[in-house]
């Protein structure tokens, strides 16, 4: 067989594999949608138990992925996202349990009203359908996404990058065990086992109509490709260019602690702050204290000319810095003329993900909340709270920055659609 023929055969094999996965997911949709809250929770608790019991196996699989990633000279931020520890595995299991303990969104009556003709109308939550998740380095996405989709009654197809494949498969086995324990179709959560990039193309094409929504979790190039090529709806954010604005009214200690946490707690997450804006009226009182704390924490400062003149231990920022998602211990810093210029800067350079204001001035806070069109806005809190678990959702399948259907952390509730139930007493339309 020629090389060209072999390539065609491989593509055919991937297409057949993905078609089978899509068909199995669709077949599991109805029994999953009809499963009650108790049965789904039995599966979720069993998944959490299996994850903890399989910690050694998951760590061994993750060690193979980490070794491969280091061999490929992946960045430190990538390695941090890929790495698992016993603590992170415990947190993964607790996240699944937290999802189990949430109210079941399926069947919830969102609204109801009575028409003058006596018709009683209800809007009721229903499962959204088959969810496809395409992610890169974070193996915990398997547990978070699989559990959230299950809670909302949706089958899921999870396709990770080649660097996280072994970890993803090990975690996926735990989810399958949980489904079997509750007598639910094991195909309701499927981890794609091939690293062939053609599998992504098949998912973007919709798997013969069997995929209803795609959620990309990864870098800019992955998300851009998904948004450009997907033939089904997409929940995603392209970048997390997140800002912290320190108002002149901010308490200095709070401004220092919150900014350092927003940037340095975990620099590789999408909610990490990338730009610090400081009210020019607070330059003499707040600026240097914040920058010294960031520097001591190991952060590189990329400063405007005005900031560089006040804080020499910094690099000069370029125009590109203001719109860069570093995902690294680097932050761009600029002085602004109060809340108005801060809002203008964020709207110009931001990605509509997450922004925080540190302030005691209620008027500045309300203006910040009213005028900035980002998915998540925080007052006197770190941008690292941009996380479904911290929102009380148990976990998240991603952060959506679009304006249709879901926005912000995408939890179980956001993975539902709705239908109308209309009750009458023989009414006919004149």
Summarize the structure.
The chain has two domains: about 5-235 and about 410-420, Aldehyde Dehydrogenase, Chain A, domain 1; about 240-385, Aldehyde Dehydrogenase, Chain A, domain 2, CATH 3.40.309.10. The protein is built from 14 helices and 16 strands. It has helices at about 5-35, 35-55, 55-70, 75-80, 85-100, 140-150, 165-180, 200-205, 220-230, 250-265, 285-295, 305-310, 340-350, 360-370; strands at about 110-115, 120-125, 130-135, 155-160, 190, 215, 240-245, 275-280, 300-305, 315, 330-335, 355-360, 375-380, 400, 410, 415-425.
Account of the protein in words:
- The protein is α/β, with parallel strands linked by helices and 430 residues long.
- The strands form 4 sheets. Strands 10-9-11-8-7-12-13 form a 7-stranded parallel β-sheet, sandwiched between helices. A 4-stranded parallel β-sheet has the order 5-4-3-6, sandwiched between helices.
- It has 2 domains: 245 residues, Aldehyde Dehydrogenase, Chain A, domain 1, CATH 3.40.605; 144 residues, Aldehyde Dehydrogenase, Chain A, domain 2, CATH 3.40.309.
